Structure formats: structure tokens, C-alpha cells
């Protein structure tokens, strides 16, 4: 009979723990990235009676297990917010230097430009103020140059995708000391080392027509406004009877254009005029009107960073005042073979336990790691109907266990009265 008291007491204790777990789940119904916990009950040892009969000794303290299922995603107006679709965690460093892991993608930037979680932990990954983010090195705090200035980039390479009219009349740049008008003229905007733009004009004269024994030839000459500086760069282009560029060839050195004496004080410039892309020429000579379809150059003016965003894949981008986007960071992700062994340490963070596998660290959507979604947050996995159903079940179980104890007490009193009826 005495075992009935301990059996009922074990049930009361187990049900109390289960009710606490349900309460914690419900309390975090709206917590971003929260993972609900399940309760698992296990029986205790059995007492063997005569005849092979067994009587249970009650229930053990229940085991709680956090289930890392994926929560629903919802859009966010914060351009720094992210959600993980699939397996994996963001990696954070606490103020004390401890490494922890989280599914909460509510991010912000502090006054020093450090990317942080809502609770102030430092988000880990790779960063670069020049846009050359390398993900092969060690991870560290992601620092973004908010409000900073991107340095000017002098143009080093340019390209003109164009056709020169094969039916143009042959002429020369000058005759008898008098300049002849070019057969075709185009221009491209380039930038010097101070970020100042210059309009570079390229003139073309058709000087020879192709034949079975010779190539078509065009002479070109580059110029900038006299108020900007000067250039004396010239050269020739040669085409075969099919309109293909044969000189310069893909294996020869690209023509160069030099700008000197820039009046704004910038350094002299030498531009490589790239005329081939993947072995194919960007300049042709067909019997069509001379025209440029596209042009490109790799220089840029100095620009202010106006906004930082985190996009799909965990790419941290800086939006510049000149309309360009510059990658300044990359979020790192960690994945575990047994994430259910992680320990909850509060602030939506987890840390490894003695049973946790080593983390595999890398970028999103690789090595079994899930995808990172920008301007999105992951909702809690708590299901209110499930939790209320469990709550009623545990309540009924608690009441039943308490009835076992009161019944055992009544039986014990009656037994004592048999021994001492007048007691």
C-alpha cells in the first residue's frame, strides 16, 4: 500500500513538469524562430509479486525534447531580417565571446556597423568593404560600412560592342593638312582616380576595303574635351572579307588609350580596350549601319552607402547613392547531425552539449544547409490547439494521480482502525 503513495507522487511530479513545458510553449507562441518542446513519459521499475505478477512503481521524470521542425515564414519590412528555410542555424558570438546558434533572424546594425541579433549578439560570417568577400577564411563579426563612402575606381578596362558599316566610303583622317570627318563616331563615359567622369570620344575612318588579297582597314582615334586633359591614342582595325576582326586578334595585346594631364589633378590613365569576349570579337564589319549596341567600363565615381540589406543566400549588400550594389558581407551557417542535442540558453540561442556533433560551417544552400531568405522571419512552431489538448490531458492525469494518493490514504486509515478500532 505504501508504494501507492510514491506511485501517485511520481505521477504528480511528472505531470507538473509536463504542464510547465506546455506553459513555456504557449508563452513563446509569438517568439521568432522558437521551437516547441515535446514531453516523453517513461515508466519506472516493476515489483515482481508471487505467481509472476508485476506491479509498476510509477513514472519517471519526463524527458523533454525540442523538435527542430521548420516554422512558417512571414514577410518583414526590415531589410536586415532573415529566415532559414531548411536545416541549419545562424552563428553568433555573445558579448562574453561564447559561440552560440540561433534560428532567430531578427537582425540590426549597431553604431559601429556590427551586424547583431535583436538581443545584441554578433552575427558571424565574412565581410569586406571592397566588395571582394571571400568565404574560405575563418568566420568573424560581420562589420558593414554603414554611412561610409565607397572609394572612386579609375577605369582600367572598356569595351564597345559595335558594327562598322562595310559599305562606308573610304577616307583618311586628314588630307592636305585638313581633317576629314570620321565615318563613325561614338563615346563612352569613363572615370579617373578621383571619380571624375570624362566623355571619351572614339572616331573611326574607313581607309581600305577588303579584297581577296587584302583586309578592310579602319583607323581610330580617341579624344577627350580639351578642358579635361589630352590623349594622342590612335590605332587600326583590320577585317577579313567575312567581316571578322583579324587585327588585333584574340591572342594579341588589347589596344590601349592613355589620358594624360587631367585638369582635376587625377593620375594619368591607361585604358585597355577589350575587343574580345570569350574568344569572340565585340567589333564587326558588316554591311549594316555603324552602331554601338552596348558599352561597358569598370570605373566608378565615389558613392555614399545609403542602405544595408541582407538578401537571399545571406548576402549582405550595400546600396550606393550612384545606384550600384556592393556585396560587403556573407552570413555563415552551421548544421548539426543531431540538433535536438543542443541546449537552450535563452535569448533564442542554443549551445552545444557533450552529445552534439561537430558543426559543419559554410554558406547557405550548400552541404545540407538550408537557404537564407531575405526580409523574412520564421514563426514559432507552437501549435495552440495541440498545446491546449496536451494541457487538458496533463490536468486530468494530475487529478487522477491525486485521487490515487487520497484513496491510498483512506485505505491506510481504515487499516489502522482495524488494528486500533478506538484510536
Verbal overview:
By secondary structure, the chain is mainly beta. Helix content is 15%, strand content 38%. It is built from two helices and 36 strands. It has helices spanning 2-27, 384-419, and strands at 37-40, 46-48, 54-56, 63-66, 73-75, 82-85, 89-93, 99-102, 107-109, 115-117, 122-127, 140-141, 149-150, 157-165, 174-175, 178-179, 184-191, 197-208, 216-223, 234-239, 245-247, 256-259, 269-273, 276-277, 280-281, 283-286, 291-297, 303-310, 315-320, 325-331, 333-335, 343-346, 349-351, 360-362, 371-374, 376-378. The strands form ten sheets. Strands 7, 8, 11, 12, 13, 28, 29, 30, 31, 32, 33 and 34 form a twelve-stranded antiparallel sheet that branches. Strands 14, 22, 23, 26 and 27 form a five-stranded mixed sheet that branches. A hairpin with a 5-residue loop joins β9 (107-109) and β10. α1 runs antiparallel to α2 (384-419). The longest helix has 36 residues, at 384-419. The chain is rod-shaped. It starts with a helix and ends with a helix. 28% of the residues are buried. The model has no long low-confidence stretch (mean pLDDT 92).
Mean pLDDT: 92
Runs in which pLDDT lies below 50 for 5 or more consecutive residues are: none
Q: Which overall shape is indicated by the principal axes computed on the Cα atoms?
A: rod-shaped
Question: In this structure, how is the largest beta sheet organized?
Answer: 12 strands, antiparallel
Distance between the termini: 20 Å
Radius of gyration, in Å, reads 38 Å
The percentage of residues in β strands lies in 35-45%
Class based on secondary structure composition and strand pairing: mainly beta
Number of strands: 36
Which range best describes the helical content: under 10%, 10-25%, 25-40%, 40-55%, 55-70% or over 70%? 10-25%
Q: Please tally the helical runs, counting DSSP H or I stretches of 4 or more residues.
A: 2
Amino acid at each position: 500500500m505504501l508504494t501507492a503513495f510514491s506511485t501517485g507522487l511520481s505521477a504528480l511530479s511528472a505531470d507538473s513538469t509536463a504542464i510547465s513545458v506546455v506553459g513555456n510553449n504557449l508563452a513563446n507562441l509569438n517568439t521568432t524562430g522558437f521551437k516547441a518542446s515535446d514531453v516523453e513519459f517513461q515508466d519506472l521499475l516493476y515489483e515482481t509479486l508471487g505467481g509472476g505478477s508485476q506491479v509498476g512503481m510509477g513514472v519517471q521524470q519526463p524527458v523533454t525534447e525540442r523538435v527542430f521542425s521548420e516554422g512558417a515564414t512571414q514577410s518583414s519590412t526590415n531589410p536586415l531580417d532573415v529566415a532559414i528555410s531548411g536545416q541549419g542555424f545562424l552563428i553568433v558570438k555573445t558579448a562574453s565571446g561564447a559561440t552560440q546558434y540561433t534560428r532567430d533572424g531578427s537582425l540590426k546594425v549597431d553604431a559601429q556597423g556590427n551586424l547583431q541579433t535583436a538581443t545584441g549578439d554578433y552575427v558571424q560570417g565574412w565581410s569586406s568593404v571592397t566588395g571582394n568577400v571571400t568565404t574560405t577564411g575563418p568566420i568573424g563579426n560581420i562589420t558593414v560600412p554603414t554611412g561610409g563612402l565607397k572609394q572612386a575606381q579609375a577605369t582600367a578596362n572598356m569595351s564597345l560592342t559595335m558594327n562598322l558599316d562595310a559599305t562606308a566610303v573610304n577616307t583618311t583622317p586628314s588630307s592636305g593638312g585638313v581633317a576629314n570627318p570620321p565615318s563613325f563616331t561614338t563615346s563612352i563615359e569613363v572615370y579617373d582616380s578621383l571619380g571624375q567622369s570624362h566623355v571619351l570620344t572614339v572616331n573611326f575612318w574607313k581607309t581600305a576595303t577588303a579584297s581577296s588579297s587584302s583586309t578592310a582597314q579602319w583607323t581610330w582615334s580617341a579624344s577627350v574635351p580639351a578642358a579635361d586633359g589630352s590623349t594622342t591614342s590612335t590605332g587600326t582595325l583590320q577585317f577579313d572579307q567575312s567581316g571578322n576582326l583579324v587585327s588585333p586578334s584574340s591572342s594579341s595585346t588589347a589596344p590601349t588609350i592613355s589620358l594624360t594631364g587631367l585638369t582635376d589633378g587625377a593620375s594619368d590613365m591607361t585604358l585597355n580596350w577589350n575587343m574580345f569576349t570569350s574568344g569572340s570579337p565585340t567589333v564587326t564589319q558588316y554591311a549594316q549601319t555603324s552602331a554601338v549596341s552596348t558599352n561597358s567600363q569598370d570605373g566608378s565615381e565615389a558613392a555614399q552607402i545609403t542602405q544595408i540589406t541582407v538578401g537571399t543566400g545571406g548576402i549582405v549588400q550595400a546600396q550606393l547613392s550612384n545606384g550600384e550594389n556592393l556585396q560587403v558581407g556573407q552570413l555563415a551557417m552551421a548544421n548539426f547531425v543531431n540538433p535536438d542535442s543542443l541546449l537552450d540558453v535563452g535569448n533564442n540561442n542554443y549551445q552545444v552539449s557533450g552529445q552534439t556533433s561537430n558543426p559543419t560551417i559554410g554558406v547557405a544552400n550548400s552541404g545540407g544547409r538550408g537557404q537564407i531568405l531575405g526580409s523574412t522571419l520564421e514563426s514559432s512552431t507552437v501549435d495552440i490547439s495541440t498545446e491546449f489538448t496536451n494541457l487538458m490531458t496533463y490536468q486530468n492525469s494530475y487529478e487522477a494521480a491525486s485521487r490515487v494518493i487520497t484513496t491510498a490514504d483512506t485505505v491506510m486509515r481504515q487499516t489502522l482502525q482495524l488494528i486500533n478500532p478506538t484510536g
